[in-house]
Specification:
Largest sheet of chain B: 7 strands, mixed
Distance between the termini of chain B: 33 Å
Number of helices of chain A: 0
Largest interface: A-B, 25 and 24 residues
Shape of chain B: globular
Largest sheet of chain A: 6 strands, mixed
Radius of gyration of chain A: 14 Å
Strand content of chain B: over 45%
Oligomer: heterodimer
Structural class of chain A: mainly beta
Structural class of chain B: mainly beta
Strand content of chain A: over 45%
Number of strands of chain A: 11
Distance between the termini of chain A: 37 Å
Helix content of chain B: under 10%
Chain lengths: 113, 118
Amino acid sequence: RKEVEQDPGPFNVPEGATVAFNCTYSNSASQSFFWYRQDCRKEPKLLMSVYSSGNEDGRFTAQLNRASQYISLLIRDSKLSDSATYLCVVNFAGGTSYGKLTFGQGTILTVHP
Amino acid sequence: DADVTQTPRNRITKTGKRIMLECSQTKGHDRMYWYRQDPGLGLRLIYYSFDVKDINKGEISDGYSVSRQAQAKFSLSLESAIPNQTALYFCATSDPLWTSGTVQETQYFGPGTRLLVL
């Protein structure tokens, strides 16, 4: 089983749609969680951290369910500029693991007019 | 200017050749990383360094070596390149932030190096 698993998609949605991505992780000792965004042929960039209580940043909402080892990202009112690959990222804490991020394979989102 | 730079941006080489990829950062971070990205496999960690005197293997270090010449520089070498090392290579830096007993650590990536081994 992969340490971090995502549905690779692709997700094709019209502008204005709401879309949700899911991610599961295998290590229950995981401590920090993130969503990164990667545009085609570009480097990944942090979209948002994911906190236990859930958090929102504009049209983006991230949720964490530690019991189910599950992370989600919800995008409301999709824009054409949201088209990208979304990477679920987990930090398995403990010992020398701090700073070592494990990436999911990414979920491809295409928003069309 | 970009905070994390990588050279070269693109490289074509032949099997058996030695090649070095270089990474420089102006963010003042102690931690640096090398990843490779392959379609369908996501980003995989090759090597990482938490300070100038610290070098650690990642999950796929075989066939690679690194050198941390200074806080700002971290180089990746392929001693004898092979075709399955064809990939997109990213360097990254980070600086941990400890809050409320947990660590929040954003990694900042360079623009990547596209490597083709023939």
